[in-house]
């Protein structure tokens, strides 16, 4: 890798740049900051399994439509290198930790960005795949395949598994009736960058969108307000809902679309319960288990809506243990 990386950096005039490890995430991707005074860049090192071409294509799609995804400066996909514009370190998470009083403004900015995305992408771009029933079901079945065995010590019985499948297939059918747009599928404060010198929604930098699909427009909205990594004050959540339903009146409280939104959020939270156990058990990232209690609180909040009674009943009848023990 060293020779390939040296050649790649040399081709972009960065052979003498200093390189600092930035972070990995829940995936095998790694990020490095390259410093060549006065400029900095970000190098993504990514295996082919992480869809680097799709990342490039979607980043270009977003920037061409006025959104602040990182500009693609260069790439060598055979070696897994992508050279990116450096959007710097002011993730919404970091800003909120340092200045919690900025929460209302940042969540408003994020909501406005989602409104702008939905208003921009009315028809499916050729490169974007549909959010399919198979992807949806594979997602919720992470709960069955990983969370349930980790908490109960055995596989879910066949009858309960069949009931689980039927319940969530009906949810997908309902979700599939919602208006669709480009959904980034990991829209939360860790993946949003505050770029204070850019105007309006351009101040919201976007990361981690290579799994984007064409799907229910509320998917990213519930990713924002039902954040599994950070608690959100109720008044801020309410303000986000008010702005979103002001832009899209079909999602006002009491509408069928609003009810289906709660179902979409419940499906996402169910998937993440399984995903985080898999990250802990298979990938040796036990810190993801710290979020399990919050995910259950959010899931309970959605399941308490009367229209989700059948889903709630399944959980009440089959889930007797909620805590996952650290190995």
From TrEMBL:
Residues 19-245 form the Aminoglycoside phosphotransferase domain. Coiled coil: none annotated. Pfam families: APH. SUPFAM superfamilies: Protein kinase-like (PK-like). This is Aminoglycoside phosphotransferase domain-containing protein. Signal peptide: none annotated.
């Amino acid at each position: 890798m060293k020779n390939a990386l040296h050649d790649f950096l040399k081709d972009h005039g960065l052979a003498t740049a200093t390189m600092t490890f930035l972070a990995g995430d829940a995936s095998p991707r790694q990020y490095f900051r390259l410093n060549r005074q006065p400029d900095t860049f970000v190098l993504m090192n990514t295996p082919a399994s992480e869809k680097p071409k799709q990342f490039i294509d979607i980043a270009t799609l977003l920037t061409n439509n006025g959104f602040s995804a990182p500009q693609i400066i260069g790439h060598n996909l055979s070696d897994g290198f992508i050279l990116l514009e450096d959007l710097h370190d002011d993730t919404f998470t970091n800003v909120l930790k340092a200045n919690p009083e900025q929460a209302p403004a940042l969540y408003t900015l994020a909501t406005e960005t989602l409104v702008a995305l939905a208003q921009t992408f009315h028809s499916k771009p050729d490169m974007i795949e549909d959010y399919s029933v198979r992807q949806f079901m594979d997602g919720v079945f992470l709960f069955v395949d990983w969370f349930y065995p980790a908490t109960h010590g055995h596989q879910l019985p066949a009858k309960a598994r069949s009931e689980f499948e039927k319940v969530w297939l009906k949810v997908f059918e309902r979700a599939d009736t919602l208006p669709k747009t480009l959904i980034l599928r990991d829209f939360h404060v860790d993946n949003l960058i505050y770029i204070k010198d850019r105007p309006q929604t351009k101040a919201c930098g976007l990361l981690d969108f290579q799994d984007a699909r064409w799907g229910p427009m509320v998917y990213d909205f519930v990713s924002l307000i039902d954040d599994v990594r950070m608690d959100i004050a109720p008044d801020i959540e309410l303000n986000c809902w008010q702005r979103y339903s002001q832009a899209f009146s079909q999602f006002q409280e009491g509408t069928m679309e609003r009810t289906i939104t709660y179902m979409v959020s419940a499906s996402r939270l169910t998937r993440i319960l399984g995903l985080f156990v898999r990250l802990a058990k298979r990938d040796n990232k036990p810190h993801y288990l710290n979020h399990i209690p919050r995910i259950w609180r959010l899931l309970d909040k959605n399941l308490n809506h009367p229209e989700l009674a059948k889903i709630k009943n399944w959980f009440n009848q089959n889930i007797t243990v909620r805590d996952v023990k650290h190995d």
